Each structure stands twice: as C-alpha cells, then as structure tokens.
Amino acid sequence: MSNIPNEAVVLIKEVKPGLKNLNIVFIVLETGRVTKTKDGHEVRSCKVADKSGSITISVWDELGTLIQPGDIIRLTRGYASMWKGCLTLYTGRGGDLQKIGEFCMVYSEIPNFSEPNPDFLSQVSLQNKSNFHKVMSSHHENQQWQRWSLENVAELLSRRGADLASSGIGVHSHVTPYEVRDPMRAWVRKEHKRFVRALQELGVPIVDKLHFENQLPSLEQHFRVLEEF
C-alpha cells in the first residue's frame, strides 16, 4: 500500500491498515489504563479524535506519561495497523507526538474507527495470505541456502567465537512470536535458543529482544518488526 506523502495532513477517517508516514492532528479524549510488557515497557491505548471521527493510538513509555485528555497533538510519521481486530495508530520509526494546543478543537467521537470493522479484517486477511504465499515461495527456493547458512554459522562460532567475545562487539537478536511461539515453526524456536545459548556460553554480549510479546503470532507483525528499529 502506498505511503502518505510526508507533508500531507490526513483526517482520521482516511486512515487505513498499512498506511505509513501519517501526519494527523487530533485531540486526546481518553488516556486509558497502563499495561506493561515483560521487558518493562509501559503501553497506553489512548482515544483521540478530529472532526471526522475517533481512533485509538498506542503510545509507549515516556511519551504516554506526557499525554493528557484535552491535549491537541500533532502526530508525524505514524502508521496504522490492526491490533486484536481493531484499527490502531502507532508512532513509527522516527515518528513524533507534539502538543500544539489544548481543549479548543472541533471533534466528533463518532464514528469510532477503532471499532471492529469486517472490511478491514477482510483486507488484512487477504494481504496476509498474499504475503504468506510470497514468503513460502521464497522459502522454498532458498531452503537449501538456509540450511547451509545455519551450519556455517555454527561452524564459525566454534572456530571464531573466542575472537568475537574478546572483540567487545555485542550481538542483537530480534524475533517475533511468529518465529518463536508458533507451534508450526518449532524448529525456528529451537535454532534461536541454540544461537543465543552458544553466544552466551562464549561470553559474547547479546541482547535478545522479543517484539510484540503480548500479541498472538501473525505474519503481519513479523514484517512490522522492521518498523521498530
């Protein structure tokens, strides 16, 4: 799906799943309760609105503590995705939330675009199926290369792991529930554990990050991890 041009400001009613580089001005109606991820991040689901309707935005950590009901906020470089069947806004990589005023803004709570929408769910389902077939085709073509790669990584660690540990270079591992919690992909979880354990035993500093840990495994989130850096 095409991105929104960086300078364009859109209305909430124009937001669709998969859109990126979203610039929106809205007023905060509710800040919602705080939930915590296993690695200590605080997440708030806030209800926001403009003249075209309302939507939920997910705000993480310090940004969430700064937002109050009545604040008028400009979202830059946000993106939209489905969360538990509901359309949700997020601050994307390099995105920002900036307070530009308070209270004085025309808005409408209805329609609420974060209410479950069969059309959006159908659209996401079709997109996931398309992505799945592309990935499976690519996986089939490169399966032999992947097996070769895993074997060579293991061999490389056995021969040069001590050099890596003494170099001071750290390793970051980024995975999603689709990779390590999907029962149909148990072999990926095993390979990931072996990889992390091998580095730890060699004394190599490693940060093992599980993204979207409170979400069910899905192919959509698997690709969305690229926007988390």
Automatic annotation (TrEMBL):
InterPro entries the UniProt entry points to: C2orf69_mit (IPR018881), NA-bd_OB-fold (IPR012340), SOSS-B (IPR051231)
Cell compartments where the protein resides: Nucleus
Molecular functions per Gene Ontology: DNA binding
Gene3D superfamilies, per the entry: Nucleic acid-binding proteins
Keywords: DNA damage, DNA repair, DNA-binding, Nucleus
GO cellular component: chromosome; SOSS complex
CDD domains xref list: SoSSB_OBF (cd04491)
Any GO BP: mitotic G2/M transition checkpoint
Family: Belongs to the SOSS-B family. SOSS-B2 subfamily.
Protein name, UniProt field: SOSS complex subunit B2
Gene source species: Acipenser ruthenus
